[in-house]
What does this fold into?
Amino acid sequence: MDNTFINYLPLLAIVIPLAASIVLCWGKSLGETAVKAIALVGFILPAVIALVLAFQFGDAPRGDEGYAFLTDTDLGLQSSVGISLLLGLNGISMPLFVLAGVVGLAAGLHAIQSKAERLPLYLQLLLVMQGGLMGVFASVDIFFFYFFHEFALIATFIMIGIWGGQGRRSAAMELTIYLTLGAMLALLGLIYLYISTDSVSFSLIELRKVVASQPISELVQKNIFGLLLFGFGILVSLFPFHSWAPRGYAAMPTGAAMLHSGVLKKFGLYGLVQVAAPLLQAGALGWSELLVWLALGNILIIGFVTIAQRDLKQMIGYSSVMHMGYIFLGIATMTVVGAGGAVLLMVAHGFSVALMFMLATAIFNRTRTYDMTEMGGLGPHAPLLSGFFVAASLASVGLPGFANFWGELTVFVSLWHNYPWAVAPAVLGVVISAIYGMRAIARVFYGPETELFKKTAAAGNIRDITMGERIPASILIIALAVIGLWPQSVSRDINDAVEGIEAFSRPSMMNHAEPLADAEAPAANTEDTAS
Amino acid sequence: MDPSQILTAILLTPLVSAAIICLFLRRGGYVAAAVSVIAAFVILVLSFYWLFNWDGMEYTCGDSALTILQFGGFEVNIGYLFNYEAATMLAVVAFVGFWIHVFSVGYMDDDKDKGRFFGGLSIFMFSMLGIVLADNLFMIFIFWELVGFSSYMLIAHYWDKDFAADASKKAFIVNRIGDFGFLVGIVWAYHFYGTADISAITEIIHNDPTKAIDGIGLLLMCGFVGKSAQFPLQVWLTDAMAGPTPVSALIHAATMVAAGIYFMVRIFALLTDFTLDWILWSGAIMTTFAGFCALGQTDIKKSLAYSTLAHLGYMASAIGLGFPGLAIMHMAMHACFKATLFLCSGSVIHACHHEQDMFKMGGLFKKMPITAIAFFVATLSISAVPFTAGYYSKDTIIASSWGLYAANHEGIYLAAFILTMLGALLTALYMGRMFFVVFLGKSNGHGAQHAKESSFWMTVPLIVLGWILSLGAGWFVQNGLDGTWADGKMTALIPTDVAHFMVDGFHGEHNGWEGAHEIYEEAHAPWVEYISYACIIGGFAFCWFFYGRGAPEDRLQKSAPGIYHVLERHGWFDDLYDWYVAHVQQRFANILGVLDLLLISGLAVRGTASVAGLVGLVCRSLHVGSLHAYVYWFLLGVLIFWAFAFGIL
It folds into this structure.
């Protein structure tokens, strides 16, 4: 293993926010400016590190299984239970690591200038989340992968409890129970997995090697994958285990909502793509049909539920649940194209949903309500804010030019080979999301002013987007647009990693799928498809 | 310059312009306008430079196409396919688009959101040029969506108005419904042919015609139905009038609706006879249906919008008849005269202080002669008066449907002939009505009384598009491709390369104007022409006497309010869809929302929680703290244990 400085950067990205968080314990004696400055450092450095690593990733020397920047720190558990803080990044975790860094920066910037009560504590918890998130995606060791997730999750629970919005108690309770249940199922699955192999290490690299040489029996694989699927599925609001998400997000303070919906929620999906599916190919194939059905439930049923929402924040929460369906669909295909599209969409969704939650708060600060039927006419008062919101909505609706489009398109294409019947219902989602997306824009920003809005506008002058909102929003929009205009910037690494995973080489069930470039393929195929 | 560099420059110029305006010139006013107009001018110059230097050989990027996304075997490329149909389309978009930009400068002079408007125009040009140049289905889809977005943004220009908010939302969603089928079709086609490259697919089908299958053609057609506002998705186009008038001109003439026709021509090889028949039916019916609806509007822009629907019906009919060249020709001619009509209406509306009701205008001929003459020429052209631009394309569509009937004796061609001919009569009726009511007689409204001829920015485009091109854009067919000048670069008023596809159609297939005209000649039916003339003259004459000159009110509305009402509501399509959205879709969504709360949040989640709570409650009630009770429980336990042990339980 190459122990140059750059290999320690992932570790630094975890330690810095945590260290900043600890320093903030002395928040009162430091004074407000120092608190903000320290928090700022704690948010900026991980993002910078993530970007530096992303730029270096292409040329970095690769270890096993395509991992770069590997460092192993033994915390004393190595010899006894085979756990060590093994950090590294491959093509799947690299973009998500950047996502965590960038969304964390945006959420941090937003939090620093927000007028939250007990700001030092708020920032402290947010920094803990940030450190946990960087850890989730940098961990190669499954134990720490799980550990960092719990770490970040606990901070989330506390944040809802203290700074939550309306209905925070019941929402926090439901969310806590739900997520703990999901996390426990996932933990059970992971332990089961560990026991079923002869591995002496929790390292994903080791596990992959062991599984490749001594495959787990198909039945056991199915059992384990079932546990992981529902455990991770609950964490990602897989239909019908989604009800925590919209209400939970509505109750979360903005920074936590941004980080949780944007990044932390991707833990489950990431676990499926990086851990469960590669190690348990047969298990995943056994469950994939059901997963397709549930994912369509996410897209269609939750899609319609989203249309019915009147509360802006609930609507964003539901739409986020709906978009999880596409990612699950991509994973369910168990192909390079599907898994690649799923990872790309995870990244895209992370940026867009964080942006949406942030802008929803900005809108609330001006209209004093989340009820869309009482809004209207904000546009001319805040043209720039509406520009941002329109762009964010269109990104999440899948407009080309933003990252989400590429993920959705890839997933649709990937479905054809094994689930051709699912293409049309999945694509119907683009109409559904257009309906609620356009309706929300029209209700909030367009049209004449409502009575309530007139009153609010008369009471205090309504300002366009402030610098404190504008900088984080710009960061997220730029990220979406960069990937949207040049998706290869992300997809190349994802593709390399996904192609290297045996499990994603599922053969096509469609017999005409061989490229027909030379038009000489047997004509019989045509009739099959036409009928 | 290398062809791909020129094409890239053409494509990126408007994007750069939009980016500059969006980033720096949001409140730029005339500076933003200047950037956008200059960008349009650069596109125009580059396009015609390229057209005049093009060798007429099909240009494709081939392997040098830019791969923008790749997962496994799935690739999305950005590449160009430039051939004769692309040449025609490029010329139309660049030329008409530029003049609409110029006109906008004058029209938007009193608007405070010039930056947003001109940025939108640039992004619209970018999206449209992407469709024109694209060489594969995925790239077309990308720009297709962007066209939808651009129109959305421009229709919502007056965003503080209810109607603009509704209309923009409707346009985007209805287009998305079309795109739903379109995208499924693209995914199917990509997997079926193993490629999304248009020329490769065409090649495959040429080698094996059985590979053109109905399903793919019909699904891809959905995209066309949405963008070109064909039945049953025609409802967005008339509402899209909520945008500023130059936007209507752009949508109706050079960009959005034309994109649908152009796309169908691009994938013409894919369309089976069944699909073509379908397109012919829907197109032919639309010519008549929309024609009637145009008579039921008093808003000048709405009436023109219905006339666009009718003329899209003609273009679709031409495709359905099997003459893609003729369809593109009608699209190009239509671009000239419809842009003129919309710009004229814009000029009139601007002069009458944003009055859009025709019956409150009147007598504008003397006050606005340049506009009036342009409108007059375009009226003649759209009604297919001989030797005007519209005559060559529209009359040939009608005549060739009779020609095909004479040759094959298939009922569908006869039906198409009757419907398109009726459509021609209706065109004369609604255009005659509009011209006489708006420009002749005396002024009926306050705005019209004080109207003055519009500024130089607005009249120059009218002269170019109206006086010259609406009149003479079609003259090139008189001598076929032989009557060229300027070293063969020009034919009549347009570049030879632009005329090529319209006259000849696809290479070696003879399915352009010439092919259509020959079919008609073979039928030896000169009376078809005579009926057309009779329709035009009869239509105008009827309007002259029935509606009168500069009438203050619609006589049809007064004398037959029932009929007028049917026309005005255009068959209650909008009402039907509104009812569906409000009473079916929204209720369904609400019910699902309630079920989601009740069943999943309520029953499943709360239910589980309360079961756990209940168990706790029961257990707690056992802990009463009384020794007697514990003893009884203990005995009960022993009893049960005993029962188990002896196999009683």
User: Anything to note?
Assistant: DSSP finds 27 helices and seven strands in chain B. The CA atoms of residues 54 and 269 of chain B lie 25 Å apart. Residues 1-271 of chain B form one domain.
